[in-house]
Amino acid sequence: MQASDDATLGLIHARVLDGRGGARAIDAQALESLQLAEGESLWLHWDRSCPPAQRWLYERSGLSEFACDLLLEENTRPRLLPLPDESLLVFLRGVNLNPDAQPEDMVSLRIHAEARRVISLRLRPLRATEQVIEQLEQGSGPRTASEVLLYLADSLTERVDELVVRLGDRIDVEEERLDHDARYEPASDDLLSLRRTAASLRRFLLPQRDIYGQLTRCRLSWFVADDGDYWNELSNRLVRFLEELDLVRERVNLVLESDQRRRSERMTRTMYLLGIVTGFFLPMTFLTGLLGINVGGIPGADNPYGFAIACALVVLIAVCQWWIFRRLRWL
User: Given this model, what pLDDT does residue 148 score?
Assistant: First the structure.
């Protein structure tokens, strides 16, 4: 059966692990008569949106109806569910790196893992699985079913690392511009979007960290002896990412508060200057308005020096106000 036929059936990758870090590809037809040799394991990666893949899961995978229903659920959160037959259901989330997609709209990867077989399902393309395939082609990939699970989790975590670094770099730029440019006004919409991204990532990574912690303590017979150490390291990495995301959210809040404080200070300073100018010219405006009324009896109306006297009086009032404002430390 050709690769195009496999795609029609929803089979994205089918690899038989040789137990030494490499693997050979097989097609969907070969699954019917496949016999694994000693030390070999099978990894099947399906597109769960394809009806033929769903039928295979229910009819030919050998999984219970309960397990199949969970693997095909529409909406899932990261979770770990041990099954009575010493297999595991693991639901993980990865960063969405597809074109025109938001990274925080994380892609779900559903996995059923047992002693010598791993079945994984996805709805949208996921870079993590492609990376594990590349490692297998280079002979440096997983050797056992438990390591397939570990390699997939490690690749998912690596994508998170890259995104967290980008978020930190973006807030670094905003903070630096805010510190060095007194006239810079950060875009509030961009900062709020950054905060939403951090919050969305944290929402999925927090339970994923708990999953890694549970796998650290998992003692299934088909796990490799040092798997717990690697799961513990992945858990610690996720803890660090969660702390970085909390810090990003806090730094966004600080940048927004700093910008709001600067805006408030500018507004206060502007209103203060307007108040000083208004208070400075109010007495002079009153005097000129009083002398400008069009009624009889205006002092100095017939005096040839009346205008000069009025101007001198205005100047005198201005000087007195300036002295008073200086004494009150308003200027």
Answer: 94
Same domain (yes/no): 209, 292:
no
Q: Which tokens go with 44?
A: 């099947």
Tokens at 190, concatenated: 């961009």
Structure token digits, residue 278: 């208004």
Is residue 197 domain-shared with residue 279, that is, in the same domain?
no
- Its domain, for residue 268, covers 262-327
Residue length, the chain?
331
State how many domains the chain has.
2
CATH of the domain at 271: 1.20.58.340
Report DSSP letters for 172-218, one per residue. Answer: HHHHHHHHH-TT----HHHHHHHHHHHHHHHHHHHHHHHHHHHHHT-
Instruction: Verify that 86 and 210 share a domain, yes or no.
Output: yes
Instruction: Say whether both 112 and 32 belong to one domain.
Output: yes
Provide the percentage of residues in the chain whose pLDDT is more than 70.
94
Nearest one of 75, 153, 142, 144 to 111, comparing CA atoms: 153
pLDDT above 80 (res 228): yes
Question: Can you read off the two tokens belonging to residue 79?
Answer: 């979770």
Q: Is the pTM of this model over 0.70?
A: yes
What are φ and ψ of residue 12, in 5° steps? -85, -50
Q: How confident is the model at residue 88 (pLDDT cuts 50, 70, 90)?
A: very high
